[in-house]
């Protein structure tokens, strides 16, 4: 996938170069673009390259792995290639051949970490009065094992450890339990030399909370008297977490990011309409993930390449942290007007109140993400490139919320069946075979229409054999079967 050059760059400057002094030779070699990999390769190899064309038993193994991955990913919504049209997307794409993690999961983990590392300085103003820090809180949703959620986090962490090792060691922590506990992290009223040692470096207000068992955090928030939910709402605003209870603390400034992991079933079982209406979960960006491929013996990434990626990210983060307010350039302002209307309409959740609550902050989330992308491109002007990539990710988030909260097993079964037919596709009659013909043609037709509307399947007309008779409608999966 050919990536656009950010407007703030000299066209000759590859995306992965670090900033260098005028006239200096950049020491990071440019890295060629890789194809987007959320679309599974047609043949997988046991060597982990994903490009082999095995024969005999090896080919059977490849086919079996491809079909298995197609089933694993069958519940996911389609991904717009524009999601990866940013610097962090390029990093996730380059790292993808070496991991079974979902590249979207790697991307959003890097996004969350970048926003926290920049600190409270860079921000965007929404509506003329609301100051938004560049914080994005992904809640990564995937099945146990096949979701590869932890794998995705580890991939991102490996890169971050090369880019910002001190931040990873000192500012990334787990264990959210209460509002008072979170506020105490940023408290400024402790007597020197007394009490518990400070969790963060002195005068540092940046905290990235990594919560691999978010279901446990949800359970704690439901306990009577627990104030974590209310404190998180304040933290998303990037503001004052001071408390006024019997254990009052002064914590006037905070900059908190969260990366949460949970399974679809756990989330549906634990969240209630009251939880949604409370306004905590609409701060999060739901992202559905699944294993992207089988790599029984993955090729290790070249350590030099990882060092180069880390150096490029470190350089951009340092430049981004020096920015203040970010604004839309004129072309982006025009695009933003359209996106504002689109996302405001999408927030009705197709009439589903719970879904509407979960996605009701699509507008500020989109602007925060676009501003983060701009800051990483070393500019305080948000361009159409940044907005397009951010909007694609937010749309995927809305679609993720829909499949997590309102799963449809029939759609998954039918999509998997169509994928198994490969590029030749299947007809309406063949589609009924997905249900052993136990569903009527009308019911299957409605499911096919849904998949076409969602962009997961394309419908084309095939001329009849021999040139006589009516043409047949053929349905083909937009994401190959394996």
How is this structure best described in words?
The protein has 482 residues and is an alpha/beta fold. The chain folds into two domains: 79-405, 3-Layer(aba) Sandwich (Rossmann fold), CATH 3.40.50; 409-477, Winged helix-like DNA-binding domain superfamily/Winged helix DNA-binding domain (Arc Repressor Mutant, subunit A, Orthogonal Bundle), CATH 1.10.10. 43% of the residues lie in helices and 11% in strands. It is built from 18 helices and twelve strands. The chain has helices at residues 56-72, 87-95, 103-118, 149-163, 165-171, 179-185, 214-221, 228-236, 264-270, 273-277, 303-320, 330-346, 353-358, 362-376, 384-405, 409-420, 428-431, 441-453, and strands spanning 123-126, 130-133, 137-141, 172-173, 206-211, 255-262, 284-288, 325-328, 381-382, 426-427, 457-462, 472-477. Strands 4-5-6-3-7 form a five-stranded parallel sheet, with helices on both faces. A four-stranded mixed sheet has the order 2-1-8-9. Strands 10-12-11 form a three-stranded antiparallel sheet. Helix 2 (87-95) packs across helix 3 (103-118), helix 4 packs across helix 11 and helix 6 packs across helix 8 (228-236). The protein is globular. The model is unreliable at 1-15 and 17-55 (pLDDT under 50).
């Amino acid at each position: 996938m050919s990536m656009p050059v950010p407007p703030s760059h000299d066209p000759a400057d590859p995306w992965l170069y670090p900033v260098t002094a005028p006239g200096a030779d950049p020491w990071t070699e440019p890295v060629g673009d890789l194809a987007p990999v959320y679309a599974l390769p047609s043949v997988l190899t046991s060597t982990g390259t994903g490009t082999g064309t095995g024969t005999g038993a090896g080919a059977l193994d490849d086919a079996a792995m491809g079909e298995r991955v197609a089933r694993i990913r069958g519940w996911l919504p389609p991904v717009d290639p524009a999601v990866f049209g940013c610097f962090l997307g390029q990093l996730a794409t380059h790292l993808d051949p070496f991991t079974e993690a979902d590249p979207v999961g790697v991307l959003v983990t890097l996004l969350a970490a970048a926003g926290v590392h920049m600190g409270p300085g860079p921000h965007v103003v929404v509506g003329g009065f609301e100051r938004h820090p560049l914080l994005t809180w992904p809640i990564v949703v995937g099945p146990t094992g096949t979701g590869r959620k932890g794998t995705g986090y580890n991939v991102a962490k490996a890169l971050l450890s090369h880019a910002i090792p001190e931040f990873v060691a000192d500012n990334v922590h787990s264990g959210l339990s209460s509002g008072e506990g979170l506020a105490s992290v940023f408290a400024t009223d402790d007597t020197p030399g007394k009490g518990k040692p400070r969790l963060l470096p002195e005068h540092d207000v940046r905290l990235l909370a990594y919560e691999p068992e978010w279901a446990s955090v949800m359970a704690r928030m439901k306990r009577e008297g627990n104030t974590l939910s209310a404190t998180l709402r304040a933290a998303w605003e990037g503001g004052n977490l001071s408390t006024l209870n019997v254990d009052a603390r002064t914590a006037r400034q905070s900059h908190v990011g969260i990366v949460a992991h949970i399974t679809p079933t756990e989330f549906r079982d634990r969240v209630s309409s009251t939880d949604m209406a409370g306004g905590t979960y609409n701060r999060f960006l739901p992202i559905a993930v699944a294993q992207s491929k089988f790599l029984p013996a993955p090729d290790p990434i070249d350590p030099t390449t990882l060092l180069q990626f880390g150096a490029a990210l470190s350089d951009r983060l340092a430049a981004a942290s020096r920015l203040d307010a970010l604004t839309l350039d004129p072309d982006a302002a025009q695009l933003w007007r359209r996106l504002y209307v689109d996302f405001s309409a999408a927030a009705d959740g197709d009439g589903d109140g719970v879904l509407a609550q979960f996605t009701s902050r699509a507008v500020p989330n989109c602007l925060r993400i676009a501003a983060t992308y701009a800051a990483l491109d070393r500019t305080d002007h948000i361009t159409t490139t940044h907005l397009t990539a951010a909007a694609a990710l937010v749309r995927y988030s809305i679609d993720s919320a829909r499949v997590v909260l309102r799963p449809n097993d029939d759609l998954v079964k039918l999509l998997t069946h169509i994928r198994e037919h490969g590029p030749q596709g299947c007809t309406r009659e063949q589609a009924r075979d997905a249900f052993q013909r136990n569903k009527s043609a009308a019911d299957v037709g409605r499911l096919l229409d849904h998949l076409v509307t969602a962009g997961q399947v394309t419908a084309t007309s095939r001329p009849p054999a021999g040139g006589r008779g009516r043409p047949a409608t053929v349905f083909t999966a937009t994401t190959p079967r394996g």
